[in-house]
Amino acid sequence: MTVRVDMGLDERGSAVAMDLEELLATRLLVQGNSGSGKSHLLRRLLERSAGQVQQVVIDPEGDFVTLSGAYGHVAIEAADYSVPEIERFAGRLRAHRTSVVLSLEGLEAEGQMRCAAAFLSALFDAPREHWYPALVVVDEAQLFAPTTGGEVAEEVRRASLSAMTNLMCRGRKRGLAGVIATQRLAKLAKNVAAEASNFLMGRTFLDIDMARAADLLGMERRQAEAIRDLPRGTFMALGPAVSRRPVSVRIGEVETSARSSSPKLVPLPDARPLELADLIVEPVVDAPELPMAHVPRPRRVPATEVAADLSRSPAASVAATAQPDRSEDEVEAIYAEALRGVVADPEAFGRPASVLFQDFQVRCRMAGLARPAMDLTAFTRRLSCARAGIFDVRAEEWADALRLADTLPEDMMGAFLLVARAAREGEPCPSDEQLAHTYGTSSLGRVRRLIGYIESRELFVSRVDLSGKRSITIPHLGWTTAAAEAA
């Protein structure tokens, strides 16, 4: 079946068509500086071939997601998912022959490369029975197949470059036809660009890019000047799918538009300069008033000094002897307040539980409870709960979480309960630094091993999305934290 896609008009006003079946076998490279009309060209190709072939779009800026409404493409926001999920999506869309736009908007360069590498590799590794023909359009291909490493990790660059190379070099037998677009040929890996047999070259100004474009089009170097003079939206086309000789093509109109557009001049506001100045420097009504002078805080008395003073004070012994009976609720309230004071003390970090237990006893004595009915083991458990922000251990909503925490070593209870508290309240996942503080360490490596150990006990399920944000689920409770940066 021969399907010809109308791309636009040549210099004589004749229609220029793209042979879709030939394109699937020979691939396409689009090149042009920013503003030359590359995205418009890709959109024209996608719109006119929609319904004829499966389409997969790698979209760094999220401009092509508008195809979903008019042409039924599935739009996937990659930042919302993890790498394994992206790989599963790729396998499913090959099996069901679904057209999709993978939007990488919101990801940093390294995250975009990691996502594209995983997605393209999963497309490439699909089982043979799913090798249906598909156009794989990669916009801003120099981001995913760079000539140099840049500021991304070397392993990420290699994975992305390998996936792009497989797409362009070995994808044809698997039904994958690469359509790549780039602003700079000089920044695109040569082994990726060289596999394309069809070319659409737009306006280019740099000599090195014009020279490479002229070589690909089979033009002499002196003829390359014509590429610099191309108007916006006009491309020099060459290849078995479009023309056997270089031909100028003015790309036709499209039906959909990108979410973002080129900036347009608009009239400035019609207001006098004094009015604008008053508007800009208008004071903020809700701004809090900050103190102009430093107000010194009273010195915090260390627990050792308080204990020494109490031991020397005969009045304290008399008060302890005359202490009235207290209800269980009153005792719990004193415990909670004392624990709050212990965990709020900045000097408590890193101190052993036995030392903090002495501080706890002093605070209880100062509150009128001479002999706390709590030994060191019980205090250690309550301290772990307090460091996680749980002071009322009798509350029914924490019963299941505490039961699970009791299955872990005592020093891990605080970290588990900190995550449980965030998950129950839908708060962001605690960072490694927060977990390290609760765990009583300054080593982030120990924190990662701690999370791995709790996962091995099937109490945690960690998930890291492509933007690097981590969320943790406690499957036995059905609680999940919100995603947050782990660092």
Automatic annotation (TrEMBL):
Residues 304-324 are annotated as: Disordered. InterPro entries: ATPase_Atu1862_pred, HerA-like, HerA_central, P-loop_NTPase. Residues 10-74 form the Helicase HerA central domain. Pfam families: DUF87. This is Helicase HerA central domain-containing protein. It comes from Sphingomonas palmae.
